[in-house]
């Protein structure tokens, strides 16, 4: 990844953290998405913030390929249950050193969920 690509990725990551604004209506506070207008953390699939977070995860998966990460396109879990793995989720979050059957790691099949697994690798102590 070039320096420019790294800078763009960091800028995009900082922007997507501000996907909503808070407003009060009829005595209740709401969080409204700047892009899709949905509220309280629910976003439509066409939301620009959802798409940006997916692009961030894809860019990280490509960057991590050199560090032993395997890009994952969805499907049945590729490792035996109980084997500890690190995973990268569609939303860009990383979960580390958990057994493949752990509740955090149930999104091996892709449903356009923020927790879909887009890359994985064996945990450091199992390589």
Supply Rg. 17 Å
Percent range for helical residues? Answer: 10-25%
Total count of domains: 1
- Would you tell me the structural class of the helices and strands? alpha+beta
Sequence stretches where pLDDT stays below 50 over 5 or more residues: none
Q: Based on CA inertia axes, which overall geometry fits?
A: globular
Strand arrangement, largest sheet? 3-6-4-5
What count of helical segments does DSSP give?
A: 2
Order of helices and strands: HEEHEEEE
Oligomer: single chain
Strand segment count: 6
Major sheet description: 4 strands, antiparallel
What is the residue-mean pLDDT, rounded to a whole number? Answer: 84
Termini gap: 24 Å
Strand content: 25-35%
The gist of it:
By secondary structure, the protein is of the alpha+beta class.
Describe this structure in words.
The chain contains two helices and six strands. The protein has 127 residues and is α+β, with helices and mostly antiparallel strands. It has one domain (3-126). The strands form two sheets. The protein has a four-stranded antiparallel β-sheet with strand order 3-6-4-5, covered by helices on one side. Strands 1-2 form a two-stranded antiparallel sheet. Strand 4 and strand 5 (94-99) form a beta hairpin. Helix 1 (3-16) runs antiparallel to helix 2 (48-64). The mean pLDDT is 84.
List the helices and strands and how they pair.
Layout: H1 3-16, E1 20-25, E2 28-33, H2 48-64, E3 70-71, E4 84-89, E5 94-99, E6 117-122
Antiparallel strand pairs: 1-2, 3-6, 4-5, 4-6
Helix pairs in contact: 1-2
């Amino acid at each position: 990844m070039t320096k420019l690509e790294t800078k763009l990725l960091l800028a995009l990551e900082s922007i997507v953290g501000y996907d909503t604004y808070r407003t009060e209506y009829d005595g209740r506070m709401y969080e409204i998405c700047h892009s899709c207008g949905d509220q309280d953390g629910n976003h439509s699939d066409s939301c620009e913030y959802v798409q940006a977070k997916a692009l961030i995860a894809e860019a990280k998966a490509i960057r991590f390929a050199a560090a032993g990460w395997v890009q994952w396109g969805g499907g049945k879990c590729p490792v035996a249950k109980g084997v500890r793995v690190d995973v990268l989720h569609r939303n860009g979050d990383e979960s580390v050193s958990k057994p493949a059957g752990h509740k955090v790691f149930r999104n091996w099949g892709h449903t356009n969920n923020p927790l879909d697994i887009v890359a994985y690798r064996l945990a450091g102590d199992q390589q």
